[in-house]
Design a protein that fits this description.
Layout lengths: L6 H33 L6 H29 L2 H17 L3 H8 L14 H8 L2 E5 L6 H12 L2 E5 L16 E2 L5 H25 L9 E5 L2 H7 L3 H11 L5 E7 L13 H7 E5 L1 H10 L4 H10 L3 E4 L2 E4 L32 H12 L5 E2 H7 L8 H13 L4 E3 L6 E3 L3
Parallel strand pairs: 1-5, 1-6, 2-3, 2-4, 4-5
Antiparallel strand pairs: 6-7, 7-8, 9-11, 10-11
Helix pairs in contact: 1-2, 6-15, 7-9, 11-12, 14-15
């Protein structure tokens, strides 16, 4: 409706318009009646009757003008009436009308009581792996990179659909399965199972020190496909779920559904929920808030925050870039809730970290920003600024330089 009126004024103006319109028609009828009456009266009465008719007609004309002005301010008055009636009918007949009203009136400053601001701390405290549920564009790559930089260890990614610029922050020999090479993934997973058994033997003979420096962070993309195509996938996730964290083998499995079957745990939902934190990104988090938690206010809060807000188990999480520069504290790591400590060891630098370190040593005291780095070398071509900032934070965590600023202003500089 082409009206600048506040909705609270609409009803009043509609009443005024209706009165002015009917007053015009009433005045016109009375004027015509007086003229007909004057035709049958005595000649000396006719001027008075004609004057009264003209006066009534003038009143009607003014009401007609008022009605036109009101109609201009309201727009299409008939359409306005229909829309008002439709809104009234919808509000009083549809069972979801009250829900829509409630959602629309959410306080923009509202925050959930159980908000998580550090998902790594939560995951480490739970002593679990991660089952990551998200769609294309939800930030799965950024989240896994952030998570791996905090938990530490050699990062290995199993991804049969990886594009050339995917996982650009990893040593490319640790990206396994490109171009649908499921045979390579299956072979590597079989080797992982052997490594896990070797670690069991080593730790049993020499304690935690015997497995120091063998930490790994294993990322399995589109796990339902891996289950279908790789014989070792189901066994791989079950054994690592129950024993991996004790031996510093952390698993982050990705899927687009949070059922146990999608994570290779057919009929074993207890293992999924007891050994994994379920992280739901994007629409998956909002759907979980609406359908499982029955919390429309939480759903709207998640939607308003975009990629920054998601669900970790039943808790909402907001991940701020300013937290990426803080040092992660090594937590006791065990299988599904044990209490045996294993201290993280520094890992070797990859080619991206080496380039940054060389730049810092050549430009002592200067702050390196993601934008400058992306322009300085084709090595980082295809990376997003957020991914570069995560590398900065990861290096600072390992005492390789220090970060300055936060959020999209976070930078890195060399310091001894």
């Amino acid at each position: 409706m082409s009206s600048d009126l506040h909705p609270s004024q609409l009803h009043q103006h509609l009443q005024m318009y209706t009165c002015a319109k009917w007053s015009f028609w009433g005045s016109l009828a009375v004027s015509c009646g007086l003229l007909f009456l004057g035709a049958s009266q005595k000649p000396e009465s006719k001027p008075w009757i004609l004057g009264a008719s003209v006066g009534v007609l003038e009143v009607g004309r003014r009401h007609r003008q008022t009605a036109k002005l009101l109609q201009e301010s309201l727009g299409d008055i008939d359409r306005a009436s229909r829309l008002n009636f439709q809104a009234w009918a919808k509000a009083n007949t549809q069972p979801t009308a009250q829900l829509a009203l409630t959602v629309g009136s959410i306080d923009v400053n509202w925050k959930p009581d159980n908000l998580i601001t550090d998902p790594v701390e939560y995951i480490q405290k739970k002593q679990k792996h991660v089952a990551l549920v998200g769609g294309t564009g939800d930030g799965k790559s950024t989240f896994t990179q952030y998570l791996s930089s905090k938990i530490g260890g050699r990062v290995v990614a199993y991804d049969s659909d990886a594009k050339p610029d995917d996982w650009s922050w990893l040593d490319q020999k640790d990206v396994i399965g490109r171009k649908g090479n499921f045979k390579a993934i299956n072979t590597a997973m079989g080797k992982d199972l052997e490594i896990l058994e070797d670690l069991v033997q080593l730790r049993g003979e020499g304690g935690d020190n015997a497995i120091a420096g063998r930490e790994r962070f294993l990322i399995a993309e589109e796990f339902p496909i891996l289950v279908d195509e790789c014989d070792h996938a189901a066994t791989w996730i079950k054994r690592h779920a129950k024993r991996g964290r004790r031996y510093k083998q952390f698993v982050c499995a990705l899927a687009q559904n949070d059922t146990a079957e999608n994570f290779g745990l057919q009929g074993d939902k207890d293992t999924l929920y007891s050994c994994f934190c379920l992280v739901r990104l994007g629409q998956f988090g909002r759907d979980y808030a609406r359908t499982k938690l029955k919390d429309p206010q939480l759903e709207q809060w998640l939607k308003a925050g975009g990629k920054r807000r998601f669900m970790v188990d039943d808790c909402p999480c907001e991940l701020d870039l300013s937290n990426w520069g803080t040092t992660a504290i090594a937590q006791p790591e065990t299988s599904c809730g044990g209490n045996e400590e294993v201290r993280s060891q520094p890992t070797a630098m990859n080619e991206f970290e080496q380039f940054i370190l060389d730049w810092g040593q050549q430009h002592p005291g200067e702050v390196l920003k993601a934008r400058i780095l992306l322009q300085a070398s084709r090595l980082f071509e295809g990376m997003q600024p957020d991914e570069v900032r995560i590398i900065f934070a990861s290096m600072a965590d390992r005492q390789l330089g220090e970060v300055e600023g936060n959020g999209d202003r976070l930078g890195w500089r060399w310091s001894k």
